[in-house]
Design goal:
- The N terminus is likely disordered.
- A hairpin with a 2-residue loop joins strand 4 and strand 5.
- A five-stranded mixed β-barrel has the order 3-4-5-11-10. It has a two-stranded antiparallel ribbon with strand order 1-2.
- It contains no helices and eleven strands.
- It is 0% helix and 42% strand.
- By secondary structure, it is an all-beta fold.
- The protein has a single domain, classed as OB fold (Dihydrolipoamide Acetyltransferase, E2P) (Beta Barrel).
C-alpha cells in the first residue's frame, strides 16, 4: 500500500469489534492462512467509480470498495441519546468467581458516537474515514469496511 498506515497481525490476537447497524462485526488479524488486515485513516481527497484516495499522515492510499464493503457513519450524540437496549462498548475485569465487572464512566468531554449503516453515496471529498481491509496486489487497500467520522 503506498503511503497509508499498515497494521499486520501478529502472534497475539487482536480483536476489533464495531457496532454497525445493530450488528457486531469482528475483524481478527491475519493468521498464516488469512491475509493481514490493513487500515488507512485520513481524509478523502478524490473519488472515482472504482476507488477513493485517502490522505493519511504518511501519504496517500488508494482504497477500493467492493460490492461487499460495509460503509458506516459515526455521528456524535449526547449521553441522553443512549437508551435501554443500546449497545455500549466497555472493557471489563474478570473476577475470581469468573464473572466480569465493568465500570462505565463518562468524564466531561467524553466523545460519544453512534454507528449507522449507510451507502457509498455518503463518501465525499473532505470527509474523514477509517478504511479496514486487505492489501491489494497493486498496493491499494481492498476495503472490508469504511467508517465515516463525525462532522463534515
Amino acid at each position: 500500500m503506498t503511503g497509508g498506515r499498515r497494521r499486520r497481525g501478529s502472534a497475539g490476537i487482536w480483536l476489533l469489534v464495531l457496532l454497525v447497524g445493530g450488528q457486531l462485526i469482528r475483524t481478527v488479524p491475519a493468521t498464516a492462512a488469512a491475509p493481514a488486515t490493513v487500515f488507512a485513516e485520513g481524509t478523502i481527497t478524490s473519488i472515482s467509480p472504482d476507488a477513493l484516495v485517502v490522505a493519511t499522515s504518511s501519504g496517500s492510499t488508494q482504497v477500493k470498495p467492493t460490492p461487499q464493503t460495509r460503509v458506516s457513519r459515526r455521528i456524535a450524540v449526547t449521553l441522553d441519546a443512549i437508551t435501554a437496549g443500546d449497545y455500549i462498548g466497555a472493557s471489563s475485569r474478570r473476577e475470581a468467581d469468573g464473572s466480569l465487572t465493568a465500570r462505565i464512566n463518562f468524564p466531561p468531554g467524553t466523545e460519544i458516537t453512534r454507528y449507522f449503516v449507510t451507502t457509498r453515496a455518503d463518501l465525499r471529498v473532505g470527509r474523514r474515514v477509517l478504511a479496514l481491509g486487505t492489501a491489494g496486489a497493486d498496493g491499494s487497500l481492498i476495503a472490508i469496511s469504511i467508517q465515516i467520522a463525525p462532522g463534515r
